[in-house]
Amino acid sequence: MTEKGERTKITLVGKTLAREGVEFVYRGEVRECEGCRLRKVCHNLRPHRRYRIVGIRTTTLHTCHVHMDGAYTVEVVESEIPTAVPAERAILNSTVTYEAGCTQSDCANFDLCNPEGIVSGDGYRIASIDDEAVIACELGKRMKQVLLSPY
Length: 151
Fold this sequence. Notes:
This protein has 151 residues and is mainly β. Helix content is 5%, strand content 36%. The chain has helices at residues 39-42, 110-113; strands spanning 9-14, 23-25, 50-62, 71-78, 81-86, 95-97, 123-130, 143-150. The strands form two sheets. Strands 1-4-3-2 form a four-stranded antiparallel beta sheet, with no helix packed on it. A four-stranded antiparallel beta sheet has the order 5-8-7-6. The mean pLDDT is 91.
């Protein structure tokens, strides 16, 4: 557990990515992982979720068929993710089931309404609300920017 009470998981990431604070979206296992003795450690994360590195163990540089410079053991937590939700659902500490966002791909807020690392249909807690952020929705919806935390 971290200071904030977040549950940590142990996994491996490429040497060049192994820095505290780096966030990544775990995509799942690839063919090159077949037969690797460390496969279970690398693939104990939930696919399509965003993680943040909170600790690094550099005592051993592991050989890896995906990361040619090798891989270090790291501690990760699931990241809070900035996104937009309908204003009427933006209630601090409430839980929401994330629904895939807008399809207006040319909108300036497309990435905020469709953030990478959120799984449609999964539950999240609204960890904070940015009342200062103004989201100009091209479809005329009233939206608020929030930080979603996995639960």
